[in-house]
Amino acid sequence: MAKNAIVGQSGGPTSVINASLAGVFESCKSRGAGKVYGMLHGVAGLLERRVCVLDDKLHGALDIELLKRTPSSYLGSCRYKLPDWHTPEGEAVYQKLFAILQELEIGYFFYIGGNDSMDTIGKLADYGAHIGSEIRFMGVPKTIDNDLMVTDHTPGYGSAAKYIGVVMKEIIRDATVYGTKYVTIVEIMGRNAGWLTSAAALAKAEDCEGVDMICLPEVPFNVDHFVEKVERMQKAKPSIVIAVSEGVKLEDGRYVCELADDVHAVDAFGHKALTGTARFLANTVARRLDTKTRCIELSTLQRCAGHLTSRTDITEAYQVGGAAAKAAFEGHTGEMVALDRISNAPYQCGTSLHPICEVANLEKKVPLEWVNADHTAMTQDFIDYAMPLIQAELTPIYVEGLPHHIYLPEA
Amino acid sequence: MAKNAIVGQSGGPTSVINASLAGVFESCKSRGAGKVYGMLHGVAGLLERRVCVLDDKLHGALDIELLKRTPSSYLGSCRYKLPDWHTPEGEAVYQKLFAILQELEIGYFFYIGGNDSMDTIGKLADYGAHIGSEIRFMGVPKTIDNDLMVTDHTPGYGSAAKYIGVVMKEIIRDATVYGTKYVTIVEIMGRNAGWLTSAAALAKAEDCEGVDMICLPEVPFNVDHFVEKVERMQKAKPSIVIAVSEGVKLEDGRYVCELADDVHAVDAFGHKALTGTARFLANTVARRLDTKTRCIELSTLQRCAGHLTSRTDITEAYQVGGAAAKAAFEGHTGEMVALDRISNAPYQCGTSLHPICEVANLEKKVPLEWVNADHTAMTQDFIDYAMPLIQAELTPIYVEGLPHHIYLPEA
């Protein structure tokens, strides 16, 4: 009898993570998998045997189309890190997991996620080899942060970059409307890597003057220099729009948002919430320069804007899911699918397989040579890199004026 | 020789204010106006003789289509209040304005804006009558706030409401992803009227559980009761999503955001900036209840999201512009065009004319009978009212992956 497959989603959601789920599901079915199970809330849910049978949830082509257009993780997510299996308590977790997988007659295991999730795939594949399991474990890349090694870019980034490019254009139109002195500071996600903030550079076009400054976490931040730059820029142009990463750091390593008085109040659990960077900078500029300021946090919207996705991104998200299924059925395990750019004009991209150890727990930063000498803008190399990833759209299916989603109430 | 027309935009921008500009322009041209001038930055710009000739800027049908799809005020905006013309200093301003209008050979004057802008139309029409001017002054309604009297709704509201409905659905999908205790508080614009915040109710559908609480400025806010409601709700459902107006007030009349320590720092000019309501409430809930919280300010995005507009709204914005031109050419002055709902099923809407004194400086609130007894949700009456306004879409014209705009660099 054909083995079953199981797929989970982990880490922060994206607009296109469900397209990868669709790719895994359809490719597994077409390759003759038995059932395709979904883990509810990733490995954490699986450990509680919280699974669904996707075959019972996805009924035909319209559901697949809706799944591709539904933002956030259809199966729910988790931020669970598997323990080291070399300790007795650790191994108990793996024994429990593999017992559940055996009971479900799983032959193929897929995990859609970022570098933390790839750690999970690596550990499961290692332990599987250790006990002689035949289950194949494959990683499917996903993160708006675009910080995975090995792959040219990650599914999820293109749509988030497109969202950022679009709303920066709209914010620039809005910010210039009164013709008065105004500094708008837009805070964009990215704790250590500035890929998302860099995407603000895409707003510049023949119909848009573009943003005036881009501040990445890769470049040490100096508050005085920042204010001086704003002052200089405002002499030429009253309304300045600045894109700043939530993760910009001072030369001493502290996050800029730690300079704000109230930042620690945000999270009741003592987590250092990286929010308030734009607000702190807007307040500082307002105090030091004779100008109105405004801060805008793109917040969750940049990762869940299913109404505004890149068709290129959706297609690639689907492809990496399918490529992972193909690889697993061909006997691969402990690997992640990567996207390989073949050419820029015309844009072409293929997939390849890489051992998980080249990906898990590592971070890819924005190359510093893609930032201009003044540390205010991205070079053409970045534009050439990012522009193909935001091309084309996948129109939502609107029902009663709103994009329709597919939705699993128990997830 | 045919008289010329002039049109200006004033107050806060919307996603569809340029559709009204297109309506005024095309209707004036088809009725035989000479030139159609645009005021750059409204009446404030006109007083400095800052005008453009729209005939030279809008070349054919594609430019009109782009104009309909370009958010924020194409001509720039202002927040200028005309003085009382019964004083000598006041009258000097009017003398200057009318001299400029005479020099430009203006016969028809249009102002697209909200209740403050209608004050401008009222004063100009009064002064025009006083000096025997033949210029006709017509108001074209515009505001995302939907707070204008006389009209069933205002152009700009439908698109902002659609944007809010769409992103609330997306935020709800995102907020439930971990299955853990989470309170998400979304801050929505509206200083005194809760029309925009009410639109969060539109997110509820067969594919979405909807928001859990809606807090309008029309209903006095009590922080303790709010926290109690959240606590009660979280017993049934771990992830709670709340829409709160930036303008919610305590029973003693203070804005809730004034309770936050740092709110006064935001604006260097001493303006009481109504921001920080969601942040304050998220911090309060995190401190008092054992839950993670998050705040999201929709900020400028809700008024400038040209990529996500209601086609119904764009069509009506165009229509009120055209109806204003028609009225002016037929001899009307000192009036505003209103939208009159004829029926809900099928949705039909016509226009009518009203004296400016019925509109200027007045505010229409959300009827309290459209809020449920618990003050947490909107009734079906509100849904029936708002749902037709968000129907259908006007697809952006995408160029290189981003919506293309039409843009006046000098505005």
Give an account of the 3D structure.
The structure is a homodimer. Chain A has 2 domains: about 5-155 and about 305-360 and about 390-405, Rossmann fold (3-Layer(aba) Sandwich); about 160-305, Rossmann fold (3-Layer(aba) Sandwich), CATH 3.40.50. In chain A, about 35% of the residues lie in helices and about 20% in strands. Chain A has 13 helices and 13 strands. Chain A is elongated and about 75 Å long. In chain A, the strands form 3 sheets. Chain A has a 7-stranded mixed sheet, sandwiched between helices. Chain A has a 4-stranded parallel sheet with strand order 7-8-6-9, sandwiched between helices. Chains A and B meet through helix 7, helix 10, strand 9, helix 11 and strand 12 of A and helix 7, helix 10, strand 9, helix 11 and strand 12 of B.
List keywords for this structure.
411 residues; alpha/beta; Rossmann fold; seven-stranded mixed beta sheet; four-stranded parallel beta sheet; 13 helices; elongated; Pyrophosphate--fructose 6-phosphate 1-phosphotransferase (chains A, B); metal-binding (chains A, B); cytoplasm (chains A, B); diphosphate-fructose-6-phosphate 1-phosphotransferase activity (chains A, B); glycolysis (chains A, B)
Q: In oligomeric terms, what are we looking at?
A: homodimer
Strand order of the largest sheet of chain A: 3-2-1-4-5-10-11
What integer value in Å does the Rg of chain A equal?
22 Å
> What is the CATH C level class of the largest domain in chain A, in words?
Alpha Beta
Question: How many angstroms separate the termini of chain A?
Answer: 29 Å
